[in-house]
Amino acid sequence: MEKGFYIITGTSRGIGETLSQNLVENGNTVLGVSRSRSDKLNYEKYHHLFLDLSEFTGIEKIVQSTNELFSKGSYDFLCLINNAAVLEPINPIEKCKAGEIETHIKVGLITPMILTSEFIKTFSDLDIRKKVIFISSGAGIKAMPDLSIYCSSKAGINMFAQSIGREQKNKKFGFEILSVNPGMVETSMQKIIRSKTKNEFEMVGLFTEAFEKGKVQENDNVIEKIKVMIKNKYTNGQFINCSEV
Ligand SMILES: NC(=O)c1ccc[n+]([C@@H]2O[C@H](COP(=O)([O-])OP(=O)(O)OC[C@H]3O[C@@H](n4cnc5c(N)ncnc54)[C@H](OP(=O)(O)O)[C@@H]3O)[C@@H](O)[C@H]2O)c1
Q1: Domain limits at 236?
Q2: pLDDT tens-place string over residues 135-192
Q3: What are the DSSP calls for 58-74, one per residue?
Q4: pTM surpassing 0.85?
């Protein structure tokens, strides 16, 4: 894999934390963003920005820090991984609160759109391999009751990736764009889902059964598949399931 500079959102736990750790341990530099910081990410090549991604003011800081850190090193790959997301509200739509819906869509959809826009604008003339990855979900292609906001934000991310993938396809120093469904991974998100009763979340049985049958993947397995997707080239804007890799 090339020596890369990565910007990864949502690095305090889960997929983002393990992916950051793996990339840094393999010689890459990571700028991670989340409201809290993982104790595991104490490396010289790991830099952290404490930001709430439901507030757009932080986006400028991410691009600024990327510019500063990137210019200090020598890299042959630059990659933005939009990974941060929230699950809540888990409720039928009439029970979802306006504030919860707003925060969810900001973190999972609007911030990734604005950050990607600023990222592409800033580095459009940079003549090295560049990639933007969106960590999506099967929920973006499969409707689920009580998860309408999550399903909608992931469907939006998929369409956004497809659209900008087509924009970038024929550009001189174009960005590779990819939308990735990791499948079920044992993180705090899965634990939140399994903690719901059937009354709260109609499809909870699907998730508890997958867990009991050992079908929920460990973080490390998924990270290896995501790394293959980072390395490989695909049709620009494509949606890919980790299970296909
Ligand atoms: N786990 C699964 O089974 C699964 C399945 C399909 C797709 N995915 C997708 O995979 C990605 C990672 O999920 P995960 O399971 O690793 O989730 P997770 O363990 O809950 O981690 C979510 C990360 O997002 C960050 N985040 C949430 N709200 C934020 C905010 N307002 N500002 C800044 N950062 C924020 C969190 O950091 P702070 O709380 O410290 O801010 C945390 O680092 C998500 O896009 C998720 O939709 C997961």
Answers
A1: 4-183+218-244
A2: 999 999 999 999 999 999 999 999 999 999 999 999 999 999 999 999 999 999 999 9
A3: HHHHHHHHHHHHHHHS-
A4: yes
Residue 123 domain-assigned? Answer: yes
Is position 197 within any domain?
no
Are 176 and 233 in contact, with CB atoms under 8 Å apart?
yes
Total domains, the chain = 1
Q: Kindly give the distance from the C-alpha atom of residue 34 to the centroid of ligand 1, in angstroms, as a whole number.
A: 9
pLDDT (tens digit, 9 = 90+) per residue, 56-99?
999 999 999 999 999 999 999 999 999 999 999 999 999 999 99
Distance 196 CA to ligand 1 centre (A): 18
Which residue puts its alpha carbon closest to atom 19 of ligand 1? 14
The amino acid occupying position 169 is K
Yes or no: say if 119 and 80 are a contact pair by the CB < 8 Å rule. Answer: yes
How far is the centre of ligand 1, averaged over its atoms, from the C-alpha of 172 (Å)? 33
